[in-house]
UniProtKB/TrEMBL annotation, chain A:
Coiled-coil annotated residue ranges, if any: none
Subunit structure: Heterodimer composed of ETFA and ETFB. Identified in a complex that contains ETFA, ETFB and ETFRF1. Interacts with ACADM. Heterodimer of an alpha and a beta subunit.
Alphabetized GO MF terms: electron transfer activity
Gene this protein is translated from: ETFB
Pfam families for the chain: ETF
Localisation: Mitochondrion matrix
Name this polypeptide is given: Electron transfer flavoprotein subunit beta
Automatic annotation (TrEMBL), chain B:
Protein name in the entry: Short/branched chain specific acyl-CoA dehydrogenase, mitochondrial
Gene that specifies this protein: ACADSB
CDD domains: SCAD_SBCAD
One GO process term, biological-process aspect: fatty acid metabolic process
Membership in a protein family: Belongs to the acyl-CoA dehydrogenase family.
Domain Acyl-CoA dehydrogenase/oxidase N-terminal: 54-163
Subunit annotation: Homotetramer.
Organism encoding this protein: Astatotilapia calliptera (Eastern happy)
Cofactor: FAD
Catalytic activity: 2-methylbutanoyl-CoA + oxidized [electron-transfer flavoprotein] + H(+) = (2E)-2-methylbut-2-enoyl-CoA + reduced [electron-transfer flavoprotein]; butanoyl-CoA + oxidized [electron-transfer flavoprotein] + H(+) = (2E)-butenoyl-CoA + reduced [electron-transfer flavoprotein]; (2R)-2-methylbutanoyl-CoA + oxidized [electron-transfer flavoprotein] + H(+) = ethylacryloyl-CoA + reduced [electron-transfer flavoprotein]; valproyl-CoA + oxidized [electron-transfer flavoprotein] + H(+) = (2E)-2-propylpent-2-enoyl-CoA + reduced [electron-transfer flavoprotein]
Domain (Acyl-CoA dehydrogenase/oxidase C-terminal): residue spans on this chain: 276-423
GO molecular function: flavin adenine dinucleotide binding; short-chain 2-methyl fatty acyl-CoA dehydrogenase activity
Domain Acyl-CoA oxidase/dehydrogenase middle positions: 169-264
Subcellular location: Mitochondrion matrix
Gene3D superfamilies per UniProt: Acyl-CoA dehydrogenase/oxidase, N-terminal domain, Butyryl-CoA Dehydrogenase, subunit A, domain 2, Butyryl-CoA Dehydrogenase, subunit A, domain 3
Length: 256, 430
């Protein structure tokens, strides 16, 4: 498979350093100020897979893409330090960034894939901040490409791809044509550490910044977030001595 | 004219600091200002705070933090208990490029800066000061000596191995000469084109695993310290005997061994630098190594503190968190201030060195102060943790044991203070 370009999507996600996620006082979202952001774990796995394919000489080039404000470049640099060849930063900031959802990202990726003449798009199956699990699928639909989602094994065979997917019933083996979209699941691989020499090499790699408008994409959201609230506080439980007591208590609570 | 001096050093200062913001690596002539990563939106101040890092330094610190937490932390307790550095840890240190931080990529190194080494040592020390000292000695003593003094042949032979799989040891101290280092008695007798080394060394770190030893021996004892010469001795050289490692209070995973030299033949080409200049090299290297130790002690203090404060926020007595008692708050804030001061001293000494300015007094201050802060911090942390701080189930007591060496090795506190006093004396010499 002589892949021209492999696009690997790197979505910056909220990775909380200390596990106290707080809802904003106005209930419009979660507090993101001062919270450490880093690469989405599933995207890390996607980048690792892309770099592995390049090391096996099955693809020519790995391009890391991230949509977001200036800080997204750090995430791209991490991908470069893992072995990606160059980066594209799609600059989306402020209110646009807060409302950036899977549909807009898919449109951006589809536009980039056409522009870069990519043969393969590798993404994480979902972002751990919103758990949408939609971007990969939507991108494939927009491009009318086959998709292999929840991949736990990927191998290239000629100009086709053999995939093992993790599904509720077990493992599904499929064969898809290229160009294609693949989303990475947890067991696809174990991402490498960015070694210090690779971090140094990454400095010389290029990151190009573009705007969604340059790609002909309108990032206005079709969704409006009405409210974000914390789950109800966990109430204390009750202990009962016998099964009869349990039934009485359940009836009292109107549960039976 | 003091005004001109100030202006000159001002100019020298503003370029590296300003360029730092644009992602430029200061001293090396190899690097080119990375203008591409300079963003017009950023305000480039000529005097950014000391805790400003280039993008590269920031990424390195994050990478090492993650690596240390995932690959070293699980093994710390066991390595301390058995007084044994895990082979996998050593291997992964090399794989991550942490053992050749300033070595040129041409020799398999990382090609980064001194300050990056300092950050790496600090991050490693937060998790295990023993691992940090292994990394510190390799980078600030061994590699620097080879890079600065090595002939092309010596660099060719050793630098690659030092970046990829070989540990080095620096052999200066002896049983009868610690602080009085130049009174060393190990001698090297010249024979045609080789030397024969006889004597013994003590307190040699990394000796258990080292593949190469930089041995300070005297070629002419009648010349006093002006006979001290630095010899490169490979591990498998006949006559070199590595003694049993010491059973230490702290830094137990770092091997510390006596060495014996029994008619060890070393070819002339294994002299590093010039004959009789060894004392200069030793002093020079130790001035830099000092900043590394300061970083180690700093990381130790911070790591210990980071383990303790969450406990004080959780532990409830008399109906409130122990953190909420004013007595505790004052103690905690005091220690936090000391750590911050130690950090600033250390970072500033490192930046001064990178800027090519005099840094010896500042390096002494950083090492002395950081070691004292580590002692204070660990002692208080055990108290704040109460009974659990006293048990081996919690990592605090290890930090307490590890910190003590900070006031002793690579120049005792008394030596640091005397050195500083010499500088102060000169400053007031009108």
């Amino acid at each position: 498979l002589s892949c021209k370009v492999l696009s690997s999507v790197v979505t910056p996600c909220y990775c909380f350093v200390s596990p106290q996620i707080r809802v904003k006082p106005d209930n419009t979202g979660v507090v993101t100020d001062g919270v450490k952001h880093s690469m989405n774990p599933f995207c890390e796995i996607a980048v690792e897979e892309a770099v592995k394919l390049k090391e096996k000489k099955l693809i020519k080039e790995v391009v890391a893409v991230s949509c977001g404000p200036q800080q997204s470049q750090e995430t791209i640099r991490t991908a470069l330090a893992m072995g990606a060849d160059r980066g594209i930063h799609v600059d989306v900031s402020g209110k646009d960034y807060e409302n950036l959802g899977p549909l807009q990202v898919s449109k951006i990726l589809a536009a980039l894939a056409k522009q870069e003449d990519a043969q393969l798009i590798l993404l994480g199956k979902q972002a751990i901040d919103d758990d949408c699990n939609q971007t990969g699928q939507m991108t494939a639909a927009l491009l009318d490409w086959p998709q292999g989602t929840f991949a736990s094994e990927v191998s290239l065979e000629g100009d086709k791809i053999n995939l093992v997917r993790e599904i509720d019933g077990g493992l599904e083996h499929i064969k898809i044509n290229t160009p294609a979209v693949i989303t990475a699941d947890l067991r696809l691989n174990t991402p490498r550490y960015a070694t210090l020499p690779n971090i140094m090499k990454a400095k010389k790699k290029k990151i190009v910044t573009v705007k969604p408008a340059d790609l002909g994409v309108d990032v206005t959201s079709r969704l409006e977030v009405l409210k974000v609230e914390e789950p109800p506080q966990r109430q204390a439980g009750m202990k009962v001595e016998t099964v009869e007591d349990l039934v009485v208590k359940l009836k009292e609570a109107g549960r039976v | 004219n003091s005004q001109t001096v100030v202006n000159r050093s001002f100019k020298q200062l503003s370029r590296p600091w300003g360029a730092c913001q644009a992602g430029w690596r200061s001293t090396s002539s190899r690097s080119v200002p990375d203008v591409a990563s300079h963003h017009p939106a950023e305000v480039v101040s000529s005097f950014p705070p000391l805790q400003t890092y280039t993008e590269e330094e920031g990424m390195m610190r994050e990478a090492v933090k993650k690596y240390a937490q995932e690959r070293i932390f699980p093994l710390v307790s066991q390595m301390d208990e058995n007084s044994q550095m895990d082979k996998e840890v050593i291997k992964s240190l090399f794989e991550q490029g942490l053992m050749g931080i300033e070595i040129d990529p041409e020799y398999g190194g990382t090609g980064s800066s001194f300050f990056s080494s300092i950050l790496v040592i600090e991050e490693l020390a937060k998790v295990d000061p023993s691992v940090a000292v292994l990394c510190d000695i390799q980078n600030t003593l061994i590699n620097t000596l080879f890079v600065k003094l090595g002939t092309p042949a010596q660099k060719e032979k050793y630098l690659n191995r030092l970046s990829t799989d070989m540990i080095g040891s620096f052999c200066l101290s002896e049983a009868e000469s610690g602080s009085d280092a130049f009174a060393l008695k190990t001698r090297a007798e010249k024979h045609k084109d080789y030397y024969v080394i006889n004597g013994s060394k003590m307190w040699i770190s990394n000796a258990e695993h080292a593949g190469v030893f930089l041995v300070m021996a005297n070629v002419d004892l009648s010349a006093g310290y002006r006979g001290i010469t630095c010899f490169i001795v490979d591990r498998d050289t006949e006559g070199l005997e590595i003694g049993k490692k010491e059973n230490k209070l702290g830094l137990r995973a770092s091997s510390t061994c006596p060495l014996n030299f029994d008619n060890v033949k070393v070819p002339e080409k294994n002299i590093l630098g010039e004959i009789g200049h060894g004392y200069k090299y030793a002093i020079g290297m130790l001035n830099e190594g000092r900043i590394g130790i300061a970083a180690q002690m700093l990381g130790l203090a911070q790591g210990c503190f980071d383990h303790t404060v969450p406990y004080t926020r959780q532990r409830v007595q008399f109906g409130k968190r122990i953190f909420d008692f004013q007595g505790m708050q004052h103690q905690i804030a005091h220690v936090a201030t000391q750590i911050e001061a130690a950090r600033l001293l250390t970072y500033n000494a490192a930046r001064l060195k990178e800027a090519g300015r005099t840094f010896i007094k500042e390096a002494c201050m950083a090492k002395y102060f950081s070691a004292e802060v580590a002692t204070l911090t660990t002692s208080k942390c055990i108290e704040w943790m109460g009974g659990v701080g006293f048990t081996k189930d919690y990592p605090i007591e290890k930090y307490y044991r590890d910190c003590k060496i900070g006031t002793i090795y690579e120049g005792t506190t008394n030596i640091q203070l005397s050195t500083m006093a010499k500088f102060i004396d000169k400053e007031y010499n009108v």
